[in-house]
Amino acid sequence: MKDTETAGRFSQQFYPFLQQQETVSLETVLADVKTSTLQKCADVVELRTKVLLEYGGEIARCGEALAQRFANGARLLAFGNGGSATDAQDVAADCVLRGLPAISLTNDIAVVTAVANDVGFENVFRRQVIAFGREGDIAFGISTSGNSRNIEMAFETAHKMKLMTIGLSGNEGGKTAELHRAGVVDFCFTAPLDYIPRIQEAHATIYHTLIELARNGKELS
Fold this sequence. Notes:
Blueprint: H1 2-14, H2 26-71, E1 76-80, H3 83-97, E2 102-104, H4 109-119, H5 126-132, E3 138-142, H6 149-160, E4 164-170, H7 174-181, E5 187-191, H8 196-220
Parallel strand pairs: 1-2, 1-3, 3-4, 4-5
Helix pairs in contact: 2-8, 3-8, 5-6
């Protein structure tokens, strides 16, 4: 009994909101959910429309360039951090599913941790580009901020090795956009927003479109 009373006092002290007996109707909850869902849908559509208007022609040109590279035997190397690491895995998986050779440089945890431990985390993708990349291949880097140092270094190395470089960024583009203006990143697509979930949704739309264009173009070549 003592333990129960102690737990009750602890809960009241640290989690008072659990003790509140606020009554909310089901209709109110459903209305809030509907409003939130519709707003999110509107935000997604608005951002994707902005990206299409800004980059529609460039996405088509990038898709054509990818198709040509794949037709010539290129392999795509995808990389990113955090949620963008998952997107990089999705890029590689979707390419392979469509018969386009690709690997994600985020997959081998032994390699990632070995490079991070021995020569620094900023080198985890650069060292793999050196090991796996060949002239004519494709380096595909994703960063919601555009400012990840390991993405930047991988692009610089890929450019020197004569790989085609493609960057996805967010907000104002960050360092990835700067590298594009400097000619280091061949194609750069920036989702102009600072909210990461919406940026990642726009990135997914872009890279799925690019992969579809690359597959269709490769089949026609």
